[in-house]
Amino acid sequence: MRRILDSYEDFELAFLQKFKLNTYLEDTQSEILHYIRKERGLSSIAIDDLVMQYQAKEFTDNVPRCPRCKSAKIINTDEEFWRTGEQPGFYDEAAALDGLVGKSHYVKKQVCSICDYVLQDLNNQVGFWQRFRRALKEKIKRYVKKRGYE
Ligand SMILES: [Zn+2]
């Protein structure tokens, strides 16, 4: 763990403390806190400052970064796809088919390894067809209104 924490920049430790620390077991929590305070000399005030500073920071390099903490330490995880077919679409149908033949369907989930922010999660995305239908409905409504059919 020491080696991993050593590879974190100060601001990353700040966001780790703010957003992810309480997801660890108590022993691990105090180990991390000890490291942040004693080894890196970051007080809780310094942590708050870093969080405020980096939340407002804009990077102009093209490195993919977490929108919350601006760290580039983003991990891809494979997650079992569970959403059922209430919304037609490729992933639903593929998942339904795989379900039929007893095969699990996995999709990518992108998570920030520093602050746990979820950048992409297909399981929780509004389906394309749902968005399409919603947009179409709006368009028809506006058209009808404009023509005075209502
Ligand atoms: Zn993050």
Description:
The protein has 150 residues and is of the alpha+beta class. It folds into 2 domains: 2-55, no CATH class; 74-147, no CATH class. It contains 6 helices and 3 strands, in the order ααααβαββα. A hairpin with a 5-residue loop joins β2 and β3 (118-121). α2 (10-20) crosses α4 (44-55). The longest helix is centred in the last third of the chain and has 20 residues, at 128-147. The N and C termini lie far apart (66 Å). Residues 15, 66, 68-69, 71, 112, 114-115, 117 line the site of zinc ion.
Write the layout of secondary structure elements.
Elements: H1 2-6, H2 10-20, H3 26-39, H4 44-55, E1 74-80, H5 90-100, E2 106-112, E3 118-121, H6 128-147
Antiparallel strand pairs: 1-2, 2-3
Helix pairs in contact: 2-4
Bound molecules: zinc ion (ZN).
Zinc ion is lined by residues 15, 66, 68-69, 71, 112, 114-115, 117.
Provide key terms for this protein:
150 residues; alpha+beta; 2 domains; three-stranded antiparallel beta sheet; 6 helices; 3 strands; 49% helix; flat; binds zinc ion
Number of domains: 2
Strand order within the widest beta sheet:
1-2-3
C-alpha termini separation: 66 Å
- H/E element string? HHHHEHEEH
Mean pLDDT: 82
Going by helix content, strand content and strand pairing, the class is: alpha+beta
Unreliable stretches, pLDDT < 50, 5 or more residues? none
Bound molecules: zinc ion
What portion of residues belong to β-strands?
5-15%
Radius of gyration: 22 Å
